[in-house]
Design goal:
There is one protein chain. With 172 residues, the chain is α+β, with helices and mostly antiparallel strands. The protein is built from 7 helices and 8 strands, in the order βαβαβαβββαββααα. The protein has a 6-stranded mixed β-sheet. It has a two-stranded antiparallel sheet with strand order 4-5. Helix 3 packs across helix 4. It is globular and about 40 Å long. The protein starts with a strand and ends with a helix. The mean pLDDT is 92.
């Protein structure tokens, strides 16, 4: 039973590895969604004129890993209190969004968001948006599996605050 999830949480380079390594994940694709220009390029998205955000499309086997589990993992990769980007990545193309494709995904995402808010892990409100899926455009090949292709650059990106935040807020 293959299904899909689409999450935006800052630079898509940093959003692939946490999902790619899990049992039940068939593929994680970096791309662009949420905008008004068909088939945008990386340069167009970076111009902040297309309305797109960098995102990952996760193709998963729902008999092995659930959408609910993916949403919980998503939260732990992001700062859900920052609507203006994520860590060193600033602007609308890096905004945190859970894109839902149906009412079941919406219910799971909204319930999870409320549970996170109720947990009081954060002093500020949870501002991550939950929006309907829009067309998803696969990013250029050099963006795919970036953490494998350029591990040093990937590590440098992670040091831009994401890993420290994850270690501080999400380690149990």
């Amino acid at each position: 039973m293959l299904d899909t999830a689409i999450f935006a949480g800052g630079c898509f380079w940093c959003m692939v590895q946490p999902f790619d390594t899990l049992p039940g994940i068939e593929k994680v694709v970096s791309g662009y969604t949420g905008g008004h220009v068909p088939n945008p390029t990386y340069e167009e998205v970076c111009s902040h004129t297309t309305g797109h955000t960098e995102a990952v499309k996760i193709i998963f086997n729902s008999e092995i890993i659930s959408y609910k589990e993916l949403v919980e993992i998503y939260w732990q990769q992001t700062d859900p209190t920052d609507a203006s980007g994520q860590f060193q990545d600033r602007g609308d193309s890096y905004r945190p969004v859970i894109f839902v494709k149906n009412e079941n995904q919406r219910k799971i995402a909204e319930t999870s968001k409320q549970e996170l808010s109720d947990s009081e892990i954060f002093d500020k409100p949870i501002v991550t948006k939950i929006e309907d899926v829009m067309p998803f455009y696969e990013a250029e090949d050099y963006h795919q599996n970036f953490y494998k292709k350029d591990p040093l650059r990937y590590q440098m990106e992670e040091l831009g605050g994401r890993q420290q935040f994850k270690d501080t807020k999400w380690k149990k």
